[in-house]
Amino acid sequence: MKSWSCIENCGACCRFDLAERDNITGVLSSKDIALINSMTGKDGWCKYLDKSKRKCMIYETRPHFCRVNEFSKSFKSYLKNGDGFLIDCCKQHISSIYGRKSIQMKAFKTAVSEK
Ligand code: SF4
Ligand code: SF4
To answer: Which run of H or of E encompasses 104?
Structure first.
């Protein structure tokens, strides 16, 4: 069985467009949405992403919705499908940001298939 894994040099999920994430808005509070809006730059990317390194600059104190292992439990699809749900979410993010044939997609597929 495949296990979800985050890869380095990605950050595809750190670009927010809540209009495209209808599966997430249902589990976010109005406080969470306000926080997301305050974290989002004009270009749509989180202000706390170091874009040159594609790394979170506030990793230790990042909000709860950035903590995949905890936040995933809020989704019925995760409770039903487990890591398969997380893998699909990452593929969607990576595909929309970098493309289906990107090096990030290749690295992600390798990471989740090796487990
Ligand atoms: S899209 Fe997935 S692999 Fe990429 S940074 Fe986010 S959680 Fe990690
Ligand atoms: S706080 Fe960190 S993990 Fe969360 S979206 Fe911003 S850069 Fe990504």
So the answer is: helix 103-113
